[in-house]
Specification:
It is a single chain. With 422 residues, the chain is α/β, with parallel strands linked by helices. The chain folds into 2 domains: 2-192 and 371-407, Rossmann fold; 194-369, 3-Layer(aba) Sandwich (Rossmann fold). The chain contains 16 helices and 14 strands. The protein has helices at residues 2-21, 38-49, 84-96, 145-156, 166-176, 197-210, 213-216, 240-247, 282-288, 299-303, 317-323, 330-333, 342-351, 356-366, 374-382, 400-415; strands at residues 27-34, 55-60, 74-78, 97-102, 119-122, 160-162, 183-184, 218-222, 232-233, 251-255, 262-263, 273-275, 291-294, 310-312. The strands form 3 sheets. The chain has a 7-stranded parallel sheet. A 5-stranded parallel sheet has the order 12-10-8-13-14, sandwiched between helices. Helix 6 packs parallel to helix 16. 39% of the residues are buried.
Amino acid sequence: MIKQIAISFYLFVFTIFFKLFKLFPQKNVTTFVASFGDNILFAIKELERQDIEQKIVILETRRCHVPFYDYSDRTILTFEPFRPFQWIRSIYYIATSDKVFVDNYYHFLAVTDFHPHVECVQLWHAAGAIKQFGLKDHKVNKESAYARKRFRRVYDRFSHVVVGSEKMADVFQESFGLSNEQMLKTGVPRTDFFYDNDEINYVKHLMYMEFPIFKQKKVILYAPTYRDGEFNVSTLHLDIKKMYDQLKYDYVLLLKLHPAVNGTFENKHPGFAFNMSNYPNVNHLLTIADVLVTDYSSVPFEYSILRKPMIFYPYDLDVYEKVRGLQDSYEQFVPGPVVAHTEELIGTIRANDFDLDRIDAFAEEWNEYSTGHASASLIQTIYNISEHDIVPKKSILDTATAESIAAASAFETNVIDDYDNL
């Protein structure tokens, strides 16, 4: 009840400023609202690379872990009420821009009655979906009629939803109640990274210089999704001591919690377990991982492009399926062995018996349009650029990778002293 009152008050104030600023002339401005940031970063870099005459405005929410550099042709604002001046300026840009990109569900869209020609592009933050979301989320049935109506108003704002496959287009149509015509089948921008061997090798080189042990041993990446109400975590449903005892000579374990989760752990196994949760680019971690361990996260959809093993550890499968809902029968859906506890996980890792053909089929199905040119295809479509006018990619420094590497380098410098907090 209190949450709904807070949302209603937020939207009431937002509406006042939005209607006021909507009286101002529309401008040649593209505004990006960033919660996750990865896809937005790739889209921005491609937009800048094509040298399109657009002012770029980036509105960062507090949960955005991808830092954006303050170049002269960018305006970067904190899109949070606790920074009232920047928040109000943000509303001004949302109301006067001719293009708005978002990468998450945002309440404010329920009251943004854009001008007819304004395009609102949903980049989303996942290349695929294991769990239900949007109107298909089981929790929606417990919401009030007013809240459900608000959800629909948000989804109705999307002129386009960017997808990487027909499978994901079907999911979005059901989850958001949209038509196939609203699906923009250009591929997921951040997946471009996985098709450029030069960039991948460059990232690996930098990471191995900073963390030599990642090259000396095999890397297990544990990347679970969040659970409702579990945004501050001090324990894991994973017995790290058992993993250390049985795998320490051959493996290291990297922990990458969901961006919405704040995890603080006591590290009793330095040199084996590394908390990489604040590392700003999960793509970099995927490139050095030898095996991915996850549950209902969307990470497997991108990781499958690399054709590497993955194990699924849904320790609360029955409860999660009941509360959130899953897209399909879990065991048949995921492209890897399903384990129920740490000992079974260890045994599966040591057996090293994975069906890579199944992973290939999974990758082809869910990354149908994500073939290495998604960012260019997106910008070409939204800004009506002829294929003959597209500026070809020239070097690694022309991509979003260079900027995200710089951010990662800053993280690496600071995180060394934080391993004791794992």
